[in-house]
Amino acid sequence: MRILVSFIVGGLFGAGLLISGMTDTTKVQGWLDIFGDWDPTLAFVMGGAILPMAVAWRITTGRKPVLADQFPAPPEPKLGRNLVIGSTLFGMGWGLVGLCPGPAIASLSFAGWEGVAFLIAMLSGMLVTPALRMRLDQKPAAV
Amino acid sequence: MQSDWLLGLIGGGIIGTAAAILLLFNGRIMGASGIIGGLVDGSGRHDWTERAALIAGLLIVPAVMVAFGNGWETHLTDNWMIIAFAGLLVGIGTRLANGCTSGHGVCGISRLSLRGIVATAFYIGAGGLTVVLFKHVWGII
């Protein structure tokens, strides 16, 4: 049952990404291009997605998930170095091509060799990150 | 232009509904980079079937929609060096930060998580700066 829910959720996620235009890299780069021909679509997508999720978080208080024992605990409100460095690196890659992990999968069937190449590079990056994280964590923070 | 915003809002609503279903039924966060990354580095071995099922849906449903619809294009650059470099940055960055647009952005901000809000500020800031530099200053993209 959990597997079926996961599949349906993935399908809805993909449909939403496609309909909203987030598999179109020009729309994503257009949103980031504040000094060019700015495209506000991504803000509407974000707003539209955050709304149902905010309601869902409200529902979780004092309840249990239908198919699980507990809801994910709130993350520690710790703003580590990895969060900042990682998000900055991610933002640079996102700006360069206009794809993030979700749309990279959702557009794979029609993105041509460029989409496949991006996915391979992204998966390679994900593969080496645990080793990279260990090295970073060994270094004392500069601040 | 206005229909783009409306489609954005509708598509966003579907994305948020998907994330809400995963949370309320399976008790999981719908973060694309975490779900994929856990399969790649082995940290998500215990629930790999659920991860694989979600990725299958994410891949197959748009493929079917594109097959029956028209006008969907990614407009990806064909500069393979940019693609490879950006792919590496997205892979490393999202795993290091433990989240991307869906995890930190949609799921994090909606629960007013400080980590999600800070991460989103940094990746949008870095993305904006990158577009300014590479497009308007250097003219590479």
Mean pLDDT of chain A: 94
* Helix content percent band of chain A: 55-70%
Order of helices and strands of chain B: HHHHHH
Oligomer: heterodimer
Bulk shape of chain A: globular
Enumerate the spans of chain B where pLDDT stays under 50 for 5 or more consecutive residues: none
Radius of gyration of chain A: 18 Å
Report the total helices of chain A: 6
Number of helices of chain B: 6
As a percent range, the share of strand residues of chain B is under 5%
Q: Outline of chain B, from the CA principal axes?
A: globular
What is the makeup of the main sheet of chain B?
none
- Strand proportion of chain A, as a percent range, falls in under 5%
Structural class of chain A: mainly alpha
* Extended strand count of chain B: 0
User: How much helicity do the residues of chain B have?
Assistant: over 70%
Order of SSEs of chain A, N→C?
HHHHHH
Total number of β-strand segments of chain A? 0
- Main sheet makeup of chain A: none
